[in-house]
User: What shape does this take?
Amino acid sequence: MKNLVATLWILLLLTSPMAAEVKIWPVPEGEPLSSFWDVEINGQNIGVLTARTADPPFEKYHYGGEYAFLSVDTDEPIVLKIREKTDRSTDNLTIRPLSLGLVAEKKNDGSFDITIANPCRFSVELNGREHPLLIFVNPLEKNVPQAGENVIVYGPGIHEPEDGRISLVDNQTLYLAPGAIVHCGIQVKGKNIRICGRGIIDSSRWEWRHGPTDHVISIRDSKNVSLEGVIIRGPSHWTVVPVHSEDISIQNIKICGGRVQNDDGINPCNSQRVQISDCFIRTDDDCIAIKGLDNNWGNCEDITVENSVFWCDRARIVLMGHESRAPFMRRITFRNCDIIHSQSRNFLLEPGENMRLENILLENLRFETGLENALNSEAMVDAKTLRFDIDTPAKENWLFVGRPVVNRYMQTQVPGFIRDCTIRNISVTGPVSYAGILFSGADDEHTTDGLFIENIILFNEKMPTDSPRLHFGDHLNNVEVR
Assistant: This one.
């Protein structure tokens, strides 16, 4: 049956008159489809797959339950027809990120048409996190690898590598074809290594922190590694982790997490020249966490994250510094990203162990939904007074927090330093909530020095330079707000 599916898939691509414009991929036999959503293009059904949230022992958390996702490739505008299958109300249908400007046009039969002009990644929601539909529209694949020496190919179908592990070394390529679902972890160690395709790397059969590899994609002591195009479903622990590596490119990957804790999306650790772009990341834990795990493995340097969409169910969108044993964490940029669901201190900069966190640029970031946990917190104070305490249960309500600290993850119990941090062109939409910004130093030696804040738009109004939402503590020097 698997060979038949693969043959039919190839014939479809060769004979379909729309193959040059739109590619719809097969769903392997036995793979369950969404019970909430149907999607079509030109009358052809697209297989809508599922991902889980809050597996045991985390079922006490409610992250909206099972959700759906699909992937399609195109080189020209398309119209997706979506239909909700369970008679839920569609009156409040929302497409996030709002910055895409996508519109769902309701039809007489109760379906919705969404016209998409360019590759993008978005969430279709009827009630926030309750059973949404994630849609990943990719550009057409180019230079598809062919099986041969140093090229490992998994075609359409469900695959179970021996021991659940794939190991890649120098000059190897791993290609996951559209319609491939590979239950595995991947270990990368070497140089000039590529992981690519439109298939799915599935870790959802392993219990929390018991995957076949240290991380779903573990990149160690490596150089010139690229990861592009694939979907990663159900991480059992940290998801994509470059450790002591350099020249890492991560492009157009989609992480469908949220089923266990510690499922961080992308964690560059003691790595240099890491480029992350055009990704969609949904996790329970941090979407991006930059860490310096060992002071002998080098700095965290020249890391850029851009044009991506983030959704975090419990922790932070971005964390820098909790494992701070690298001497420096510097030249780090986040730009042109959308935060569509968040629950905690969104961007948390907390260096310790004398590490210098410096040359940080956070720009053109768009926050949505009003920081949900804070709205539901009994400790949420009257928005008119804007009084707030970071140590109350409403601490989830901060956009940016920067302060050298000592915490339980640190071996040397001393704070670090923050130098030269720029935050500019930030917007917050949704229900009015606190949305504060907090920066401070730790002591006379471990200071925060050089903070520039410009053009913060909160709920359609520019934040004044003397806003009570700005909290500046002690040992903070050279601050400019515009």
In short: Residues 1-20, 371-396 have pLDDT under 50 and may be disordered.
